[in-house]
């Protein structure tokens, strides 16, 4: 897993899972704490995430809210969109362009 960018936009790539959660949490919290306005997470290079990785994203979302910021997901891969819909988190998280729920293949 890697995260590159600044305090306004980060690109997350590789696998966001239990092995990379601590590093990802540290990077996201630092970006939230040291920036202003929306924090955009570009997920176009993310291969996969597990429940722990999703928990890291939700933790960053909550922290951003407490800091008066908003976490915005950009370019969410289709398989991860399905997970967000299945867990109903697409209703809580800000997703650039939204998710076309009706266009997602059924699992």
TrEMBL record:
Signal peptide: none annotated. Pfam families: STAS_2. InterPro entries: Anti-sigma_ant, MlaB-like_STAS, STAS_dom, STAS_dom_sf. It comes from the Bacteria. SUPFAM superfamilies: SpoIIaa-like (SSF52091). PANTHER family: ANTI-SIGMA FACTOR ANTAGONIST TM_1081-RELATED (PTHR33495:SF2), ANTI-SIGMA FACTOR ANTAGONIST TM_1081-RELATED-RELATED (PTHR33495). NCBIfam families: ant_ant_sig. Belongs to the anti-sigma-factor antagonist family. This is Anti-sigma factor antagonist.
């Amino acid at each position: 897993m890697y995260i590159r960018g600044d305090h306004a936009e980060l690109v997350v790539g590789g696998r966001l899972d239990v092995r990379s959660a601590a590093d990802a949490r540290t990077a996201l919290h630092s970006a939230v704490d040291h920036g202003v306005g929306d924090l955009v997470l570009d997920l176009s290079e993310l291969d996969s995430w597990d429940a722990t990785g999703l928990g890291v994203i939700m933790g960053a979302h909550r922290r951003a809210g407490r800091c008066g910021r908003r976490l915005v997901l950009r370019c969410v891969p289709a398989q991860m969109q399905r997970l967000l819909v299945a867990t109903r988190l697409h209703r809580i998280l800000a997703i650039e362009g939204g998710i076309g729920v009706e266009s997602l293949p059924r699992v």
